[in-house]
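RETRY 2/3 - previous attempt timed out on the joint model. Re-submitting the same 385-residue input unchanged.
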Amino acid sequence: MQPFRVPEAHTGVSEVTAAAAPTDRQLADRIVRDGDEAAFRALYRRHTPGLYRFALRLLGGNVFDAEDVVQQTWLKGVEGLPRFRWEAGLATWLHGIALNCCRASFRRKDSGWLAMDARREPLATPDMPHERIDLESALTRLPPGYRTVVVLHDVEGLTHEEIAEQLGVSANTSKSQLSRGRRMLRSMLTPPEGWKAEVQP
Amino acid sequence: MRSDDLTDLTPAEREEFAALPRDAEPGRMLEERTVAALREHGLLGRRRRAWARPAPFLAAAAAAVALFVSGLAVGQWLGTRTVVASVASANHESALQMAAAVQRSGSAYVAALTALAQVSDSTNGPSVEQGREAALAALYAAVAELMVLAPDDPVTVALRDLFDRPAPTQGTAGQPEIRNVVWF
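RETRY 2/3 succeeded.
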């Protein structure tokens, strides 16, 4: 299974540089064999921006938690590299680890983070009714459970079956969360009825 | 992007999701913190080497020392055992050989005396006398060694007493009293 289909551009191995730059596997082998710090830094710089954005989005924009998750992801990742079988891409594997770290972070703060309570309100609402927010901001205001499924499905492109396996829930739960999350997003992104934008001179 | 749920995204919404940035740069210090954490966990740098990981290295060193000491002890024990066994065996073999030699020479001594006695007539007087002196000298020497070998043995004690007496006087038949001693 390859739940996170990370585009090649996010692996840092473009067609232009593929011939010169060492592959993920070559760098990983140097880390495992020699504890090569330079190889790790190369791998870190290649994958961390994608991991950080992923964690930042799942954690509702909390930069401190996101950095903590990225660090934990690399710790677990490097520790597990000798056992990584390279059946999936390294980025895909690292995103899976990051997702688990994010879930652990959620659990530390709210044991019911994945609860699908329809009465749950967004974490924050726009300060003013007429305030337009973009999709990124709206995602941060979703409850963690909704946000996780929306990000995994609509941003990362996972199927409900893949999400179910990653989160340890049923595919129906994933579908339900996605549906409610999208409704909540639309309510945040659509201006109130009768509201007209006023353009300041 | 999937469209397998009940509330499908509109094309505009799909575009919005697709346009979301995929990368973001974390704080500059995160890389250093991560590298430091990896070093601390022994996953990067010199800690990856066996000698820099205290627990496995100490365990390996302790195992090596224990192996060396036990090997040394076993080697010493085997060596000592071999030497002792070899000496004991050699001594045992040597004693057996000596006893056999004594038995052989004793039998030869008695046989020679018997032969000498059979030819002790008047025609061989000087030769028999020479043989008799040689037999007595050998007997004296044998008794002296017996006194060392078995000083408390009753026969040895009797022989010593006999030989410590003054020079034997010739009997009526011209034979010394020593002839009456049963020594073998």
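Residues 1-5 of chain B have pLDDT under 50 and may be disordered. Closing ticket.
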